[in-house]
Amino acid sequence: METAHLVELIDAHKRAYGVSESELARRIGITRQNLHLWRTHGLRGLPARTTLDGMAAELRLPYVQVLEAALRDAAYLDTTGHVTTTEKHA
After folding, report:
1. What is the pLDDT of residues 1-48, one digit of tens each?
2. Spatial contact of 55 and 6, defined as CB atoms under 8 Å apart
3. How many whole angstroms separate alpha carbon 38 and alpha carbon 30?
4. Structural domains in the chain?
5. Which of 10, 47, 64, 66 is most exposed, with the fewest beta carbons within 10 Å of its own?
6. Which residues pair with 77 in a beta bridge?
């Protein structure tokens, strides 16, 4: 099974529990603007551990599931779950 993107996990939670984007962002520990940027521009880097912990707790998901989604979105994992590497050739 392919790892979901963070915003897909967030959207599934919003649909299931009827919470607003602003309220969900607050509960996770990020701003609504930051959540909007994730949605429109993707992740530019891996969120802080405390953010991922907050997201896992609020979304009622295992931490590893949230971490995998973040790693995939930040391009640390490819779509198959393998670590991506960049090799420099001399």
Report:
1. 455 689 999 999 999 999 999 999 999 999 999 999 988 888 889 999
2. yes
3. 11
4. 6-73 (1.10.260.40)
5. 64
6. 83
